[in-house]
Design brief:
The chain is α+β, with helices and mostly antiparallel strands. The chain has one domain: SecB-like (Bacterial Protein-export protein SecB, Roll). Helix content is 28%, strand content 38%.
């Protein structure tokens, strides 16, 4: 008789996979007294690396605009390698789309804030994000549009 093996979730490595910063209208933009409008976009994707090993990348894009000009654009791709074993197949998507990005968000928050401050602007602090709500929203969209299974991932 085989015993059911215990589920395992472990963080093997967390790293900043990619980061970029653009200030297209510098130095004139630093003379503006009005504060910019901040837009934040999140996207995550997962890929299997090896048996039980997965890479999850949480990409955060922050765009600051003043009228029709981009003040700055910051993008950080925070990644992690996770060991995930003995999770039922029907739960794996939720672990990769909810749990892993939740682990990565604080690191992405620090990377974005640091890049924005180094660019000479007040820090942008990413608010808490409910990856569970985003995941449920994505599932609902998939059930409403079953023919569109090959659509690119949603930006959040």
């Amino acid at each position: 008789m085989s015993e059911q093996q215990e589920a395992t979730f472990g963080v093997e490595k967390i790293y900043l996979k990619d980061a970029s910063l653009e200030i297209p209208h510098a130095p004139q933009v630093f003379l503006e007294t009005e504060g910019p409008q901040i837009e934040v976009s999140l996207h995550s994707q997962a890929a299997a690396l090896d048996a039980g090993m997965f890479e999850v990348v949480l990409t955060v894009t922050v765009t600051a605009k003043l009228k029709d000009k981009t003040v700055f654009l910051v993008e950080a791709a925070q990644a992690g390698i996770f060991q995930i074993l003995n999770i039922p197949a029907e739960n794996m998507d939720a672990v990769l789309a909810v749990t892993c990005p939740g682990v990565l968000l604080p690191y992405a928050r620090e990377a974005v804030s640091s890049l924005v401050m180094r660019a000479g602007f007040p820090p942008v602090v990413l608010q808490h994000m409910s990856f569970e709500a985003l995941y449920q929203q994505r599932l609902q969209q998939q059930t409403q549009q079953p023919q569109q299974n090959d659509t690119p991932p949603q930006s959040h």
